[in-house]
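Researcher: Quick one. two chains, 576 residues in total.
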Amino acid sequence: MSERKQTTDDRNENSQRTTGEYDGLRNGRSGHETGTEGRREREGGDGRARATGDALVEINELRKIYDPDGAHVTAVEDLDLDIGDNEFVTVLGPSGCGKSTLMECIAGYLEPTEGEVLVNGDPVAGPDPSRGVVFQSNRLFPWKTIGQNARFGPQMRNAVDDDRIQQLLDDTGLTGFEDSYPHELSGGMQQRAELVRLLANDPDIMLMDEPFSGLDAMTKELMQEMLLDIWEEEDRTVLFITHDVAEAIFLADRVVVMTARPGQIKDVIDVDIGRPRDSSVLTSEAFNEYQERASDLIHDEAERAMEQKQQETQEA
Amino acid sequence: MDAARLAKRGISIASILVVWFVVSAVGPETLPGPIAVATTFAEYVVDPVYWSAVGLSTARVLGTFVLAVLIGVPLGLLIGWNVVFGDFTYPALELIRPIPPIAWIPFGILVLPTLAFSLGFANFEVQTTVVFITFLGAFFPILLNGIEGVRGIDDEYSRAAHSLGAADWQTFRHVIYPGALPSVHTGMVVGMGLAWVNLVAAEMISGGGLGFMTWSAYTGGSYPVIFVGMITIGVLGYLSSTIVRYVGASQLPWMESAAA
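Model:
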């Protein structure tokens, strides 16, 4: 990671994100570190590995219980996580493990049952334009054109910067589609347009919930590269949720691996691959090692998640 | 539409005329044939009395329809959007809704004209019953489709709007209202149809317009006029629903199916 972002000269001056500094993570319930060995030396006296710099997002002992008709489903339990400024964190977990719940708590859509989510030290109280969200199913407004969608955020505060929006549309190859409606575009273009809408609003934090899961493999790879390009150019913190092991490693500074429900953090992998990255990284030896390790970690959890699902289906 | 398809549809209409012709030739004397009806129709088309009935009925439907849209759309959107507002209003409306429009007619005749008169709407008393019954027909489909339209919008659109910085009223303006419009439009098409149904029923009993013209043709024994009335009502109902459908579709260019 020491060589990362050499191409972007000024962005890391204030946040030296070398390995270990942001291992701000601990499995609270078991009370001991479940993280990777040898990466915990900076851990504080309170038993919690924290970011030594300013954590932009701080999640403390988060628990979220859904209780529809007394069913009492614990989606997330005792989850601690710090996310540093300008860090790219991916959350990798089997389906139904509470990844989305975690994201929705940060976005401000859900209130934690217990624990807290702090952004810049303040508890999250509802959605805010500084925390932008990209949804799993494309959520461009179907009744607005691509141009209107892109302008939406700034328009809400009467601060539309046409040059910036035009630049974003150019960068994502959407010029000429400003007057098209979302349904007239391909899936990949729709996802790019949603990204433009988000970036036009200039959020500090981008929360992305499996945004590329509906795309074909080729488009997905291009989208990942594009996302990294955009991220390298501008200061932004990303929390990216996925169940795709390769995607999680390719994008991330850190991969947070989650357990099956109730969602806890199983382990955190620091991805020490230089940036900027492109698809050639995918065939490197280092990448394969990370992938193997992540796959091992997630395999048992995926099995457990599947069993849970079968059980639920039988009960229903 | 290609010629073959037009021909098939032409045959469909022609066959109804043929059946009508045959049945009237061998059937009861009270059933006039297509030719007798066409002759009477030709006389009526040049008669100002006919056109005043057409004008009155059309004006009543259009006026009430606009009223139903102005009240039903905002009310439906608010009920669907705001749980508290919905709790205060929806049960009362649901209680009124199942009462058939015709069952309102005695109430309308007994109460509404007096009410209108005492409220100062002199010269409007005769209209009130018909307008009220017609309104019920247009109002409820628009209201219910408005409510359903809002409830059918995925929450994630509102979430997206809020995360992009939209305040509640902006979310209503940019997400709830446009998102519910396709359903509201369906409600308007249905409402326009029901407005004509209710109008004719109300006019037959409390007076005026095409409903009364048709009914008095029956009581007066001029049977072809009954059919003139029926056909006119059918054509006007079809025309107004079609206009609502096309105007609506032109306002919803983002609908995948609205391209046609």
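The mean pLDDT of chain B is 91.
Researcher: Thanks, that's what I needed.
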